[in-house]
Amino acid sequence: MAEHKQGAHQSRKQAISRKAQHRHSHFYALFAHWSFPRSGDMPPLHWHRERWVLAAAALLLATLSGFIMPTWASAMKPASPSVQARTTLPLSLPALPATAQQPKSTVDQWRKTRVKAGQTLSDIFQAEGLGFSDLNRVLQASSNPDALRQIHPGDEFSFRIAPDGSLLGMRFDRDAMHRVQLNFEGTKVSKKVVARTMQRRESIGHGIINGSLYGAAEKAGMSDAMVMNLVDVFKYDIDFIKDVRAGDSFTVIYDKIYRDGVFLRDGRILAAEFVNRGHRFTAYRYTLPNGDVGYYSEDGRPLRKSLLRTPVAFTRISSRFSLARKHPILGYTRAHKGVDYAAPSGTPIHTAGNGVIVYRGWEHGYGNFVLIKHNKTYSTAYGHMSRFAKGERVGTHVTQGEVIGYVGMTGLATGPHLHYEVRVHGKQENPLTVTMPKPKPLAPKLLAQFHSETAPLLARLKIVNTHIRLAQAAAAHADTNG
């Protein structure tokens, strides 16, 4: 019975084996030689090369697992913080000095203020909460107290005041290049003069006049003061009241003055060009060996003419040169051999050129009268003065622009004005049209130096004008093709 059950069990296993081999025939065909038969009629197991390789690989894998797994587990385990024993020892340190116990502020507490129109230094001290005693200490400490009394709108003062209101320090500009700092400690006063860093930076302005000269200059970034400088340079050749027209242009090379890196004011005109009604005028600043500074044209001829046509700042021409004019006082017709420049009484009258006073006194019809001889050919006369300038007398040498008297209405005059005459070989000529003597050009040696110094300015003017012409041509081309 037992043998029968064992045979049935064996038959069932063989049937299962055959069924598996039939279902997975491709697998058994591939690895048939790796099989381990268990049937009793099969030959005993033999170790082939493949079996040795599999056994060695299994053994190696088991060995490595024994080493790797504990190491990885230790690496993943969080490290326990190490505790270091520390010992604190008391140290005795020296006490800090009194000056180091309370740190000082690194910023000076200076309060700045600017002078307003009508303010005095006393007004400024009162506005800062300072008294007359403080002002007196400042004036006594200053080496030039008059400079503090003659302050101007825009001047800057700085004060350092203690919490209790006492004056600790004051700063002000002695002049454009020096700043004075006064420090007060009790009854002691210390003074320090600091030199300011002055710098000149070159600028270029160009404009085309459409409305007014001032409007064109403003668009070019030039100040009104610089416009006045430009007018003063070309005043001998251009009448800016009557001659300037739309389309006139100007180019100016000038410098700006900076103090401690901050713009202070406009400086000097170095070179300029003005095109008036198609005529080109140039000016270059040049210093003579004797220190005299003037403006010269490109050919080295001074722009400053030998004689001025208008030696006074007038409001209008009240009477022109005429050979037949009805006299406003005498009532009959006679020649008026001069030009009358109406101006407020007291307006300064300047000599038209360098010369010598040959007459100074009362002259019938002219009132207070001055006659100046400039050379063998030219002389000028000035009438109706209210008074003469001090120090001027017969034989005195005068220079162009020097004040010789003041506008009035002495003699036969109906209102304050200057009667001005230009005489050529003693004969009166029309001051507005007479040919004035041309100034002498620079001597050959100075002329060579002048051309050498002004060559860079001339080159810059040409470059600016070239760029302007190209820009205008490009704009005109764009408008044509627009």
Report on this model:
It is a single chain. This protein is of the alpha+beta class and 482 residues long. The protein has three domains: 111-195, Nuclear Transport Factor 2, Chain: A (Roll); 198-304 and 440-482, Nuclear Transport Factor 2, Chain: A, CATH 3.10.450.350; 316-429, Glucose Permease (Domain IIA), CATH 2.70.70.10. The protein contains ten helices and 22 strands. Strands 11, 14, 15, 16, 17, 18, 19, 20, 21 and 22 form a ten-stranded antiparallel β-sheet that branches. A five-stranded antiparallel β-sheet has the order 1-2-3-4-5, covered by helices on one side. It starts with a helix and ends with a helix.
Radius of gyration equals 52 Å
Estimated helix fraction = 25-40%
pLDDT averaged residue by residue = 81
The tally of beta strands, per DSSP, is 22
Shape: elongated
CATH class of the largest domain: Alpha Beta
What distance lies between the first and last C-alpha atoms, to the nearest angstrom?
A: 122 Å
- If helices are DSSP runs of H or I spanning 4 or more residues, what is the number of helices? 10
- Domains counted in the coordinates: how many? 3
Largest sheet: 10 strands, antiparallel
Share in β-strands: 25-35%
CATH-derived architecture of the largest domain: Roll
Q: Using the coordinates shown, work out and report the CATH topology of the largest domain.
A: Nuclear Transport Factor 2, Chain: A
By secondary-structure content and strand pairing, the structural class works out as alpha+beta
Unreliable residue runs: 35-40, 99-107
What is the chains' assembly state? Answer: single chain
